[in-house]
UniProtKB/TrEMBL annotation:
Protein species of origin: Lacticaseibacillus baoqingensis
InterPro entries per UniProt: Prot-tyrosine_phosphatase-like, Tyr/Ser_Pase_IphP-type, Tyr_Pase_AS
Domain of life: Bacteria
Membrane-crossing residue ranges in chain numbering: none
Protein name as annotated: Tyrosine-protein phosphatase
Length: 264
């Protein structure tokens, strides 16, 4: 299977390559190293073997226990599975924030979703999941060996992870934004078997999030938070997730290349 943006594995949902995206220093994300996806709970044996043949060796699942029990990943033993649930959040929003939102009347859906994205970046439980993701990325040292990360729709929890990785690697904001919004095109007419999970999963909060598209307002809220509180994504990984400058250098060495074209 030749690398391309949307990988043609029949029973995968929103399975995409991150290879080939340009960085601001003139390099590119390497192909066959980073994949993002929705649920892998519908894979057939041939689909799993196709992932193995492609080079997938790590499967990071951001879903909560009830989601994974309802629709467990169907992957071969050759792929190492790691559940890193992002939800539920464990830190309460600050009193100042709750009073501010109450006074402003910020209870509309757009604000709620944007706040959820902000919590994914700051909540200690969510941070622990993303810390472990980056640690696994740093251990994925073999060439053409892919790490796949996913949630149910491959939109919110996965979207934050993709922004985090792309930002750390130096992908420009417009490219990151387009990759985030690409989910809307991919899921515009999902196969019927996927619709049940995307609309009626095992968790009410996840259902609410999955009922809506990848919104530009969510991406903008994340960008504002990163710029205001951390300056940029590399600083976020250092200050909030406690990775070193050397770790970020290692990450770029592992996942960047001078060649934009995939190898067969």
């Amino acid at each position: 299977m030749r690398p391309e943006r949307l990988l043609p594995i029949p029973h995968a949902i929103n399975l995409r390559e991150l290879g080939g995206y340009p960085t601001e220093d003139g390099r590119y994300l390497a192909w066959r190293k980073l994949l993002r996806s929705g649920t892998l709970g519908y894979l057939e044996p041939a689909d799993g073997q196709a992932l193995v043949a492609y080079g997938v060796r790590f499967d990071v699942d951001f879903r909560s226990d009830n989601e994974t029990q309802t629709r467990p990943d169907r992957i071969p033993q050759a792929i190492r599975y790691q559940q890193l649930p992002v939800y539920p959040f464990v830190d309460r929003p600050s009193l100042f924030k709750r009073l501010r939102d109450k006074l402003r009347g910020d209870n509309d859906l757009e604000t709620i979703m944007a706040n959820t994205y902000g919590q994914m970046l700051t909540d200690s439980h969510a941070n622990a999941a993303y810390q472990q993701l980056i640690a696994l990325l740093l251990r994925n040292t073999q060439p053409d060996t892919s790490l796949l990360f996913h949630c149910t729709a491959g939109k919110d929890r996965t979207g934050i992870a993709a922004m985090m990785i792309q930002g750390a690697l130096g992908v420009s904001a417009p490219v990151m934004r387009e990759d985030y919004l690409l989910t809307n095109l991919v899921l515009e007419a999902p196969e019927q078997m996927a619709q049940a999970d995307l609309r009626h999963g095992a968790d009410h909060f996840v259902n609410q999030m999955n009922a809506h598209q990848a919104e530009t307002s969510n991406y903008d809220a994340v960008s504002r938070l990163i710029a205001k509180e951390y300056g940029d994504w590399p600083n976020y990984l250092q200050k909030q997730l406690h990775f070193s400058a050397g770790d970020l250098t290692d990450l770029r060495q592992l996942y960047l290349t001078d060649d934009p074209e995939p190898k067969d």
